[in-house]
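Dear all,

This email documents one entry for the complex benchmark we are building for the journal club exercise. For each entry we list the sequence lines for every component of the assembly. Then comes the predicted three-dimensional structure of the complex as a token string, followed by one or two observations. Please use this as the template for your own entries, and keep the labels exactly as they appear.
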Amino acid sequence: MKVESFTIDHKTLLPGIYLRKRGETYHTYDIRMFRPLSDGELESVEANGGFPDNERFLSPKTAHTLEHLLAFHLRDTLNLDSSLIYIGPMGCLTGFYIITSPELPRQKLVESLKLVFGMICEAKNIPAATSGECGNYAFNDLEGAKSVSKRLLETLF
Ligand SMILES: [Zn+2]
């Protein structure tokens, strides 16, 4: 298996901020916000009507809003643009990937994320949520992003 993240045992993975790859030119982190789906869990949840948004996984709209807010506050508000190569949601909606330059210390990233989740809890609007700046500016959930951020502040740090 060539895809490194597929070799991680997702059955024992807990929410957290993980340094996944320490490359020469970049570092890859997982911000795992939700525990992966476990064997047998799907059947019990489906019997109860499915997963409520943002209770067990990010809703797609919340992931999009978090993408805007995390990128804006990390790059602009905290001025980490030159160290931040990429930030975006995982397709499985259990968290985000962050790719940084190797010069950014892990502790600095963790402290910055804590600050940014605090800022998101207070957010009044979504940066760059306009037709000129985003592929689908109507596809957002600010209240969802705030409630997930509040929970992450209580559980991730
Ligand atoms: Zn967008």
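Observations: Residues 60-77 form the longest helix (18 residues). The pocket of zinc ion is lined by residues 64, 68, 134-135 (CB under 6 Å).
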